[in-house]
Design a protein that fits this description.
171 residues, single chain, two-stranded antiparallel ribbon, 2 strands, 61% helix, mainly alpha
Length: 171
Amino acid sequence: MRLVPFFSCHYRNAMYGHYLNDIWQWDYDRLETQHDYIQWLFPLAEASKFNSTAPIPTEEEIYLIGSDAVLRENYLHGLRVIMRFMGFAFINGELVPNKDFKSRMFNIEYRSHNLLRITRILKSLLLFGFPKAFNVVLQGLNDHIPIGCRGCQQAMKMFWNPLRFEEQTRF
């Protein structure tokens, strides 16, 4: 069991040895260029195609992270950090563009691995029992992603919005 200690800020992730609270402090460049952390912030039930050291959560880890107050808050803090990196902020229960939105949208559109990151985030939110956060993020993406961002629109249609059906049938 590696995820519970990681989300408790007591365990370094495997490849480069980062603590969770270290990742929270990274600037946009580091969040963009470092690729091993996203699988730790937003674990999935299936193996990563890109990171062989990425954890696959056990049922116990899924339960604990979804139910323990500290672990939940740390998971959700990671969500706030990565959504800020993507150009958004959570304000009054909604996901809205932040001051860096235009430059971050450019980054997302022309560095398409960020679209995969968003897909991972949405799937992980469902896996760990955060349907409200899932709906807020998905609604914010639908409301604010520019129509001109073709890759974003395609990901929304093919990958992100279909997850709503999964969310409705799961809970």
